[in-house]
Amino acid sequence: MRVFIDGAPVGDSEAVVSVFDWGLQRGFGCFEVIRSYHGRPFRAEAHLDRLERSAAALAMQRPDRSMIADSVERAATAGGDCQVRVILTAGGRDPLADAPPRSVVMWELLPEVPVPLRVMSMAAPWHPGRSDGPLAAVKWLSYAPNMASSDAARRAGYDDALLMCDEGWVIEGPTFGVAWMTGGTLETPGLDLGILPSITRAATIEAAATLGIPVAEGAFGLDRVLAADEVLALSTTRQVTPIGEIDGREVPQGPVGPALLEAFLDLVAAEIGHDPRR
User: Fold this and answer.
1) pTM value?
2) What are the E-state strand segments in the chain?
């Protein structure tokens, strides 16, 4: 079974949400995407923690966590090497239609990831650029600006976008975090810029520690990234993927990215009890 709605398995043709649900009408809801390796979800608890924080920030009704966790496990088992998407909708508010909030869990095929990535920098005026707003770092369904930026970059011949806030700081990609090596230090935008507290970002920082690589978090401009020794995209599906081009400028490829990926996969193997490389 591929889809679970409110904890119950449903067939693909019955996997529906009401057109009156504000998740569809207004993007009112939140979500997570969890990587499954050989049917074993990686850091599902951390993802569900973040899901609960997103729902709380939106003042949404939250379903039973154990039900969501069980659905995640069942979807991961069914999908094997896949990604598991978790969606919470806010339900509808039309007095003439019954549209209760829904929890949707489903497994999806892993997308193909170009290696190395070619990205195009662009402004992201919708991004807060700070962490003091009530909705900063919420992983909500309103991803239209992010997806539009990815599509714009692809129309221009790139694989994806690299976003910058109004202050000019590099923040993240539309669906990935970013880090780079400069003078032996792994640098990455700080969480105080309102970026998503990425599970993969956190795991990569842990992996860097096992390799003795210092990490610096802060506010950095595009020039800093363009001058880096290596640039990396970090996400559930990309894991640790090198970026090879930014705005038509070649980015060096070095040994740290592959070493970080191996250390990241070692961490995954230790936590799920199975080596994802086998």
Assistant:
1) 0.96
2) 3-5, 8-10, 29-37, 40-41, 82-89, 103-108, 117-123, 160-164, 170-172, 177-182, 185-189, 215-218, 230-235, 239-246, 249-250
Q: Distance between CA 190 and CA 142 in Å, rounded? A: 23
Closest by CA position to 196, among listed 106, 125, 118, 128: 128
What's the pLDDT score for residue 61? 87
Query: For a pLDDT cut of 70, what percent of the chain falls above it?
Result: 100
Question: Which domains are seen in the chain, by residue range?
Answer: 3-108 (3.30.470.10), 117-272 (3.20.10.10)
Structure tokens at 76: 């991961």
For the chain, what is the mean pLDDT? 96
For β-strands 29-37 and 117-123, DSSP reports them as unpaired
Q: What CA–CA distance (Å, rounded) separates 257 from 176?
A: 15
Model pLDDT, residue 132:
84
